[in-house]
Amino acid sequence: MSEPSFDTAIRLIDEAHARDPNKVQSNGKEVPYELFYSNKMSDYLNRCDAGASETLRLAIRAQHLRRWEVPRSCYAMNKTGYHMWRTYLKKRQADLAAQICLDSGYSSEDASRVAALVKKENLKDDAETQTLEDVACLVFLDDQFEAFEKEHDEAKVLGILRKTWVKMSDKGHELALNIPMSDRARELIIKALADDD
Length: 197
Known about the structure:
By secondary structure, this protein is mainly α. It has helices at 6-17, 33-48, 54-61, 79-103, 108-118, 127-151, 154-167, 170-176, 183-196, and strands spanning 23-26, 29-32.
């Protein structure tokens, strides 16, 4: 078997992300959203754990892998449909990431580990899974929260903030409180945490 190549795996993951038809502006350039998202995930991982294992770094980069191919609208627009969509995506993204790892020379054990991380297995008992959850929550707060709070009523926003906060570690909390954000977004976070005491 060939030596595992982290660079090859990252390249294949990024090539898949680059096919996302949804675009965002980043540093004055239009880029595929999932490529933008995965780079932000990697950036936050470096802040959380600069010495992260290759398998965690690959799982972080592979979050949302080809997610745009299965839009939310494929499932019923209710809570049950949402959970079915998320469950299907987790397994699909994990399988796709594992295959990229195998194609890049990683062992089946390493590929399975990446898949388990992508699926966020053993969240409260696995430090690496917790780190991945922290990173996903931080990216949500940094990149998606301000748009989210404008589209939903305050009660729903506060509920989502509380659920997000509970999923994070103390280190994640510390990083979250240092994210630059609007006064309104920070006010909502403070309110959610105060109401949760």
